[in-house]
Design goal:
The protein is an alpha/beta fold. The protein has a single domain, classed as 3-Layer(aba) Sandwich (Rossmann fold), CATH 3.40.50.150. Helix content is about 30%, strand content about 25%. The protein contains seven helices and nine strands. The strands form two sheets. A seven-stranded mixed beta sheet has the order 1-9-8-2-3-7-4, sandwiched between helices. The protein has a two-stranded antiparallel ribbon with strand order 5-6. Strand 5 and strand 6 form a beta hairpin. It is globular. About 35% of the residues are buried.
Length: about 200
């Protein structure tokens, strides 16, 4: 399947991609407060790049939820809140909370078409989690959204590719992939991981 890996600033690269060219966006933007400015432009670009009814799924920090929801709703349609178990279960001392799950926001570009049923708890295979835990902020390899929301040869976009876990999943499951990463080190890590991942035996 075609793979297009781009070393560059996500917002600049997204501006150059063609309209209605993406079947799903699955991403994990950085959580620190200094990156809050990325969320609304991400939603704005997603509304242009996603085909009608297609989905954006994004990890999001708990503390960010009100602001990110406000930013996304200006451009996309809220569909659901999914979660993944947080195996590490860190303590957020400033909030006095033990974090046992991670939010995954699900938005669509207009009314969603009928899709296969997807659980809203996106379970994690512990072995896969260990394999995908390359980047210090890396998340688990999610397969349910690929099966429920996309078809073979569909195009998946990750504007904040990190170590390339979304690209690995896309390649394993026979989807085309566009990945963008600004950090040169992690871009090279992602490129190596994705290119060394075998393509599926089916077509």
């Amino acid at each position: 399947m075609p793979t297009n890996l781009i070393h560059g600033d996500a917002l600049e690269v997204l501006a150059g991609l063609p309209d209605a060219s993406v079947d799903m966006i699955l991403t994990d933007p950085p959580y620190p407060r200094e990156y809050m400015h990325l969320w609304e432009p991400l939603a704005m670009h997603a509304a242009r790049l996603l085909k009608p009814g297609k989905s954006l799924l994004s990890y999001c920090g708990h503390y960010q939820l009100p602001d990110v929801l406000d930013a996304f709703r200006k451009h996309l349609r809220y569909h659901w809140l999914c979660i993944t178990p947080n195996i590490a279960a860190p303590i957020m001392h400033g909030f006095h909370v033990k974090v046992t799950y991670k939010p995954v926001l699900w938005f669509t570009n207009g009314p969603p078409p009928k899709t296969r049923i997807m659980p809203d708890t996106l379970t994690i295979n512990l072995r896969q989690w260990r394999i995908s835990k390359v980047h210090p902020w890396g998340q688990s390899l999610l397969q349910a959204p690929f099966h429920a929301l996309t078809e073979l040869d569909d195009t998946i976009l990750d504007p904040f590719m990190g170590s390339g876990t979304t690209g690995v999943a896309a390649r394993l499951l026979g989807r085309s992939f566009i990945g963008i990463e600004i950090d040169e080190h992690w871009f090279n890590v992602a490129k190596e991981r994705i290119q060394s991942t075998p393509e599926p035996l089916f077509t």
